[in-house]
Design a protein that fits this description.
The structure holds 2 protein chains of 2 kinds.
Chain A: H1 2-39, H2 44-49, H3 61-69, H4 72-103, H5 109-121, H6 128-137, H7 144-168, H8 172-181, H9 185-196, H10 198-214, H11 217-222, H12 231-234, H13 246-276
Chain B: E1 4-13, E2 16-26, E3 31-35, H1 42-50, E4 57-62, E5 65-66, E6 77-80, H2 92-102, H3 107-121, H4 136-149, E7 154-158, H5 166-183, E8 186-191, H6 194-200, E9 203-208, E10 211-216, H7 218-223, H8 228-233, E11 240-249, E12 252-256, E13 261-263, H9 266-269, E14 279-284, E15 289-290, E16 301-313, E17 318-324, E18 327-333, E19 344-350, E20 355-358
Parallel strand pairs in B: 3-8, 3-9, 6-7, 7-8
Antiparallel strand pairs in B: 1-2, 1-4, 4-5, 9-10, 11-12, 11-14, 12-13, 14-20, 15-19, 16-17, 16-19, 17-18
Classes of the chains: A mainly alpha, B alpha+beta.
């Protein structure tokens, strides 16, 4: 009993400080989200009267409006299709390239790695004019495929950087054992090595997914037809010159944010494993 | 069942020659141990046989088929790695079954062979576990099991016991010997530990700096090493060496250094006649140096004087570290001996068990 009291006293100050800090941070992050969530259930008039007020009734009309009338169903599927395709493409290409660049040295391998790494240092946005012209020449402006290719290219340098580091630290004896067991190089990659870098795969997937999902810049420039727009661009349609439908806008925001929250909840464990790998045995 | 032949095998990494003109044969069902200090090329020699490294020149054959250009999987070998190299994301069962699945073995047969191997190694209860849930000794067994299920012609072991603690190592040593008797297959085993080599091998190949020094049965290697390296490497504590000269006095041949001189028994003297006056190295094993009070019967001894430097009591014997001039040497003496550090004592050299090496070539003179 006395032991317990001593423990409590010892921990109270530090605990209080840490808790206060964490709760404060959580409040700063969560309050606006709550405000958005609450305001989806209120009318524009109510929102103008009292922006921080609580909803008077539970209704999802604004979501239905956003989904059906404001074309959010189309934007949502565009975003999903473009982001998922780009992430899959970039991860597939990166995993193969990183495996070879991380585990083998051959003529030009260092240059190739440096070439990919250069992509980490050059901001893609600076190259928008030549990029636009290139896509235009290829007939890929105002096409989802064009955007997918651009996105995949932006994700590859970072993914190779992370994955190559992970592949490099897998022991050589593992692939030798598999080779003696009769596995082909491709099978060693797919059945032995790839499953072992799963935390890294989760990390690069999420780290690619989030900025692409939220990206406003490339679709604004590269997509013209409304039916190809993504969520981020579609959102701009709510901002009218004279009138903005706030509750529908907020519903749109919730629809946009929800997939990211779900993704993080699913992948947190893997991401932490990925970011902390190599710290302990 | 297969024999293995190395014929003038070279392996170079850039300018470094890791394996230098090695030739020997491993007979069918033999347990051959490649032993040598770290970096001597023994592991490279094994990896050449496994097909994990390419031969620079020479031929390696398994059952009279030259395998230089045969892929590892088609050589009909299985290898146990130092780090075990178990697939971390697969269960023990899947680790064992992996090679069989790749060879499209029917499911029922895979199951039968995995269970059989698990039975031999006593790991039936571990089949559903992942490697990280196993102890070092259990992982070791799984690694051996992965080799057994394949039913290969030749088993290759690359320092499989060096990651185990001392006690487990002794136990696994006996188990690998038993396994060899049970499987009746050719084993090629690499280690830097001469005790492992002595206890398990039917024959030992000693390698140093990429060159094969001697290949023979453990007892022959111990009793008649061909050169100073083999003499010093096999046996623990290792053989004592004294720089010395041979001289003749009154019709007898003496071997002597700065501070000692002992006559060579007449029955062995004849072979040294031609080397009188030459620089030689006199070698004698610690167990052939006795406390004069406890000399075993029927041996020919000669006395020398030395100073006690350190005494190590082992219980069943004492390791005496002695100083003779500037030479350090070790004697294994009877545990009843009572010595104090700093004391000058008499020791008895067993003159039927000594070795003489040419100081220049380091080859044994017999």
């Amino acid at each position: 009993m006395s032991n317990q009291i001593a423990k409590k006293q010892k921990f109270s100050f530090a605990d209080f400080g840490v808790s206060a800090l964490l709760w404060g941070y959580a409040a700063v992050v969560l309050l606006p989200l709550m405000l958005v969530l609450g305001n989806t259930m209120r009318t524009s008039r109510e929102i103008f009267k009292n922006p921080a007020g609580l909803p008077t009734s539970i209704n999802f009309d604004s979501y239905v409006r956003a989904w059906q009338e404001a074309n959010f169903s189309i934007y949502f599927f565009n975003s999903l299709f473009i982001t998922v395709s780009a992430v899959l493409l970039a991860t597939a290409v990166s995993a193969l390239a990183a495996y070879i660049l991380g585990r083998y040295t051959f003529f030009g391998s260092k240059f190739l790695l440096a070439f990919f790494m250069a992509g980490l240092m050059l901001p893609f946005r600076l190259a928008i004019v030549p990029l636009f012209m290139m896509l235009n020449n290829m007939g890929l402006v105002d096409s989802r495929m064009g955007l997918i290719l651009v996105y995949a290219a932006t994700g590859i340098p970072f993914s190779i950087f992370i994955l190559a580091a992970f592949f490099r630290q897998l022991p050589q004896e593992l692939s030798e054992a598999a080779r003696i067991d009769g596995a082909s190089e491709f099978r060693i990659f797919g059945q032995i090595m790839l499953p072992l870098v799963r935390p890294a795969l989760a990390t690069v997937t999420v780290f690619q997914f989030v900025p692409l999902w939220n990206d406003f810049f490339f679709p604004l420039i590269l997509l013209r037809s409304t039916e190809k727009w993504t969520l981020a661009v579609g959102m701009t349609r709510f901002f009218g010159e004279f009138q903005t439908d706030w509750s529908t806008l907020f519903a749109g925001l919730v629809i946009t944010t929800l997939p990211l929250i779900i993704l993080f909840l699913l992948a947190t464990k893997q991401i932490i494993a990925g970011l902390t790998a190599g710290i302990g045995k | 069942m297969a024999s293995v032949t190395y014929a003038n095998v070279f392996k170079k990494f850039g300018d470094v020659t890791a394996v230098n003109d090695i030739s020997f044969e491993v007979a069918d069902k033999e347990f051959l141990v490649l032993v040598g200090p770290s970096g001597c090329g023994k592991t490279t020699a094994l990896r050449l046989l496994a097909g994990l490294e390419e031969i620079t020149s020479g031929d390696i054959s398994i059952s009279d088929r030259i395998v230089n250009d045969v892929a590892p999987k088609d050589r009909d070998i299985a290898m146990v790695f130092q780090s075990y190299a178990l697939y971390p994301h697969l269960t023990v069962y899947d680790n064992l079954a992996f090679g069989l699945k790749l060879r499209k073995t029917p499911k029922a047969e895979i199951k039968m062979r995995v269970n059989e191997a698990a039975g031999i190694l006593g790991i039936e209860d571990l089949l559903e576990r992942k490697p990280r849930q196993l102890s070092g000794g259990q992982r070791q067994r799984v690694a051996v099991g992965r080799a057994i299920v394949r039913d290969p012609k030749v088993f290759l072991f690359d320092e499989p016991l060096s990651n185990l603690d001392a006690k487990l190592r002794v136990q696994m040593r006996a188990e690998i010997s038993k396994l060899h008797q049970k499987l009746q297959t050719t084993f090629v085993y690499v280690t830097h530990d001469q005790v492992e080599a002595m206890t398990m091998a039917t024959r030992i190949a000693v390698i140093n700096k990429g060159v094969l020094q001697q290949i023979d049965s453990p007892q022959v290697l111990y009793d008649t090493p061909v050169n100073r390296f083999v003499a010093g490497f096999i046996g623990s504590p290792s053989m004592n060496f004294f720089p010395a000269k041979l001289r003749k006095d009154n019709g007898r041949i003496y071997v002597g250094g700065k501070k000692f001189s002992v006559p060579i028994p007449d029955e062995r003297a004849a072979s040294y006649e031609a080397h009188l006056g030459k620089d030689i190295i006199f070698g004698i094993r610690p167990e052939n140096i006795h406390n004069p009070d406890y000399v075993p019967p029927n041996i020919h001894i000669e006395h020398a004087t030395a100073k006690v430097d350190v005494t190590e009591l082992m219980g069943n014997e004492i390791f005496l570290h002695l100083l003779l001039g500037e030479n350090n040497f070790v004697a294994r003496v009877d545990p009843r001996s009572e010595y104090t550090v700093g004391e000058t004592i008499q020791v008895a050299f067993d003159m039927q068990n000594f070795h003489i090496f040419d100081a220049e070539t380091e080859l044994a003179i017999r």
